[in-house]
């Protein structure tokens, strides 16, 4: 079951079914269209109301999961949207682009491996060129590979996770600032892991704590320029990240049991947080983290 409309009055605990995923594996990056069940991006439920009219937005990892739900919501709120993704994710990107077009907005997908600084700079330049500027940057792409023992966590993986989750955030933000003016909004994606690290996600959880800290410092630095920086910190959400070694088999089988609601979240449930932080209605909010995690309490 999923809601017919995002504004329906429902019990949030039972608003979406438990996912109860069958065990499944894909190589990284996972393709959402091949998941069972396919995550809910709010295709049938998200109704816009003009909150981002005329905005120009870049969303990394906008092909699938949380970034894709956000891209669809942004378009339905009136924004033109560039989504960035890795090679091999074209099928998911096409789905999102078709929904952006259905919303009557302009959309484009750019392939870039953001673990390289030069590709981050190219991505931002191409996005700003297509959009005719940039008002909203959503740093959402992320890498998560579960490894049980620190001895088995390779130096290469540790570095790659930091390059993708933290360094890229820095490179893309720095390049985007050439285009972001007063009223612009940067929304970064942390995680419940930033506060409650899972023992088999040392590298990943540390990057998420770093994103929280980086975002707060940057919010202070950019306030005088009229640019806001905030964070969305999701809890367990059913996305392609999980099926491409993001969690162990055992955790996948119990994916619904990790939070207070006793059900995993759907990407559709995250998008409104990004809309709020991107839009002018959160003008007095900067340096904040919005936790969207099925009722988990964070410090
Ligand atoms: P997802 O797999 O659907 O999206 C992640 C995207 O990151 C991919 O689509 C891919 O395009 C992009 N990506 C990864 N490495 C990249 C690289 N080197 N270059 C360019 N793009 C790259 O999964 P998702 O869960 O929607 O993830 C979105 C964000 O949400 C991530 O930052 C993730 O850490 C965060 N998050 C997810 C959960 C969850 O339970 N799903 C919980 C907390 C935080
Ligand atoms: Mg993807």
Automatic annotation (TrEMBL):
Keywords: Oxidoreductase. It holds the Pfam family adh_short_C2. It comes from the Bacteria. GO terms for molecular function: oxidoreductase activity, acting on CH-OH group of donors. The keyword Lyase does not apply. Residues 1-37 are annotated as: Disordered. InterPro entries: NAD(P)-bd_dom_sf, Sc_DH/Rdtase_CS, SDR_fam. Signal peptide: none annotated. Belongs to the short-chain dehydrogenases/reductases (SDR) family. This is NAD(P)-dependent oxidoreductase. It comes from Plantibacter flavus. The lineage of its organism: Bacteria, Bacillati, Actinomycetota, Actinomycetes, Micrococcales.
């Amino acid at each position: 079951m999923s809601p017919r409309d995002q504004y329906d009055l429902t019990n949030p605990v039972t608003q979406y079914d438990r996912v109860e995923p069958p065990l499944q594996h894909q190589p990284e990056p996972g393709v959402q269209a091949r998941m069972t069940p396919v995550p809910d991006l709010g295709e049938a439920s998200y109704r816009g109301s003009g909150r981002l009219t005329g905005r120009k937005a870049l969303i990394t990892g906008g092909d699938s999961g949380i970034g894709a739900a956000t891209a669809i919501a942004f378009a339905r709120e009136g924004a033109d949207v560039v989504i960035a993704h890795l090679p091999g994710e074209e099928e998911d990107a096409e789905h999102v682009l078709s929904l952006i077009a259905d919303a009557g907005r302009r959309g484009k997908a750019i392939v870039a491996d953001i673990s390289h600084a030069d590709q981050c700079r190219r991505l931002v330049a191409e996005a700003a060129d297509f959009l005719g500027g940039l008002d909203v940057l959503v740093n959402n792409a992320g890498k998560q590979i579960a490894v049980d023992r620190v001895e088995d966590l390779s130096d290469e993986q540790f570095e790659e996770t930091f390059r993708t989750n933290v360094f890229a955030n820095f490179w893309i933000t720095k390049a985007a600032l050439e285009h972001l003016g007063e009223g612009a909004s940067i929304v970064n994606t942390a995680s419940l892991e930033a506060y409650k690290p899972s023992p088999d996600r040392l590298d990943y959880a540390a990057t998420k704590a770093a994103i929280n800290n980086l975002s707060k410092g940057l919010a202070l630095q950019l306030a005088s320029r009229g640019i806001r920086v905030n964070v969305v910190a999701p809890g367990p959400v059913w996305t392609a990240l999980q099926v491409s070694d993001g969690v162990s088999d055992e955790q996948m089988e119990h994916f619904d049991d990790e939070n207070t609601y006793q059900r995993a979240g759907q990407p559709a449930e995250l998008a409104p947080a990004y809309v709020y932080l991107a839009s002018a209605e959160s003008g007095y909010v900067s340096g904040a983290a919005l936790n969207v995690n099925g009722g988990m309490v964070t410090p």
